[in-house]
């Protein structure tokens, strides 16, 4: 008879204590062992997540990791355990350290890129399989890459078929993989300049035409998740801020990002399971919505996980190791294929979420095995102590892998329910559990599966303003909302790029009309720096945010700004970071002081309480601020950029062409560089084509730009 080791017993007790004081949650989504470094992959309508495995027994108080596992789902709540994909010992050249991996599909095969040997000289290997759930084998019998800090591979295949492998601790490296996916061409490239606070765990992907690197960043002595974007694989990358601050009882975090069935998901890990910590981590998932400027919202770890995408049909055969939440259970390889539930003892349970019984189930079959005397499966709904809808008795079958089917009657199960299997019996291991199925009465049909749709964030409205780009002429250039819209609160979302020219003005750039609506403005000082100052006002509750001098915007740079309002909550994002969420902030715009005289530009605001300054002192430059539409836009103007005049000196010449070329290859440009002037073909990117067009313009080959 199998016995649980003391660690398992300890964990079970710890878990019971934990659950007695906390509501159970569905994150972390694997509870049968410790998992880390989630690497999601969508293939043929299924989400697979490859994880590392933190062993229960930690050696040398450090990561003790020997193998990679895989879990899958189609509803984002119930996850099926596929067991171990490959062990470090399956690589003849490996000594251990089965750290963060990623899998990709190409040409009928699945390629799993794995880091190994971190403690004896880090290297990256590649394994291959015909199936997403393995078995995998070493594809080349040797490391693909060897070098210091060579961990955490992330693989990506671009639309043109070129595959890339990113990886690295401290530095982020990449190579171009060949078509065979097991060799590469060209040298190892380093992402330069270094990504802000980059430490490890790059997750590389493309969304629309933007390349994203989401990565573990070192902030305050432990890891957060940050991201950066670029219009080309090799960069330069723009830091877009923090996605998930440090939290969760683990020194590390590790991102994975996918889109699935129109939803976006961030995978990460923490130490939230009982007995959890930096070397006992667990994988989790959040749903999120990209900003319309492509930003990833800053988010916290969650306990509930995402909305369930579809209900589970109990009249299909299901694996017992398909789990939303469980207590006290383990899994093991099953002699009938796949995995089975094991280590089942008295009062252990598992939950399957969102099961649609339709008109009602009448009987239940379970495939079970026991070398002991068995026990009972209590079938309940709503909670582990909820309504009992049936009880199946399990007797000894003569072996832990001698499988028999047991049946029992069911009553009281209709409609959509959370299903619980509560296991009861004597002491020790009771039985193993391979799969289950409900059966209905004659003509019973499960109800159609409604797909819950998460509340869109932000709620979409018809654009109030469309068009653009618009160019504002300083503080006098704005327009109010169209008639009939001024006194209403709208749910909306807006995102745009703010491009600073020489600045010396307050400029209102967003006005929802009056102090019971939402507005946003920009202030700036003369010189080469502008200071953003934003206000969010909702229903008379004024929340205002002045950014400090460190957040100053340099003239010539582009900033990505988004503001959303949903119900009574307005959120302001700058370059992907949440800046304000309609809290009552102290009015303290940096470098302007906090005296009323500094609010001279607010003279146009309805009922502006701060109008005290001398208007004669207030200079408004042409093109003080340019607002270019990305989403909806609000204000209008007349000024246009001076295309080609990249250094804003009033002429278009070969110096402008050279500056644009320098900017394109990532060389620092001295003096003023006005991006909107440099993008002469107006395709929203500044590249060598713009430089050539400016040169052609200069020598008279062309006479106009876009
Ligand atoms: O899991 C081992 C290492 O910890 C990973 O490779 C890193 O990304 C960090 O999560």
| Percent range for β-strand residues | 35-45%
**Contiguous runs where pLDDT drops below 50 for at least 5 residues:** 1-25, 447-493, 502-529, 533-551, 582-640
Q: List bound small molecules.
A: beta-L-arabinofuranose
- CATH superfamily of the largest domain, called what? Glycosyl hydrolase domain, family 43
Protein model, in words:
This protein has a six-stranded antiparallel β-sheet, with no helix packed on it. A five-stranded antiparallel β-sheet has the order 1-2-3-4-22, with no helix packed on it. 6% of the residues lie in helices and 40% in strands. The protein folds into three domains: 35-288, Glycosyl hydrolase domain, family 43 (Tachylectin-2, Chain A, 5 Propeller); 318-439, Galactose-binding domain-like (Jelly Rolls, Sandwich); 472-640, no CATH class. Helix 2 runs antiparallel to helix 4. The chain is built from four helices and 43 strands. A hairpin with a 7-residue loop joins strand 35 (506-511) and strand 36 (519-524). It is mainly beta and 706 residues long. The protein is elongated. The model is unreliable at 1-25, 447-493, 502-529, 533-551 and 582-640 (pLDDT under 50). Bound molecules: beta-L-arabinofuranose. Beta-L-arabinofuranose binds next to strand 1 and strand 14.
